[in-house]
Inverse folding.
């Protein structure tokens, strides 16, 4: 749990680190939104 300056407790909310990249999909280059974890794992081919 995250505790603020006023000591209010709230649950930490994790959001994906999304990047807009050009990737090759079905032989064509398209601009898509991909999380940086997927980019580092090599799950998509960049154009």
């Amino acid at each position: 749990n995250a505790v603020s300056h006023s000591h209010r407790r709230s649950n930490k909310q994790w959001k994906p680190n999304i990047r807009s990249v050009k990737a090759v999909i079905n032989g064509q280059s398209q601009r898509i939104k991909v999380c940086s974890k997927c980019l580092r794992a090599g799950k998509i081919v960049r154009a």
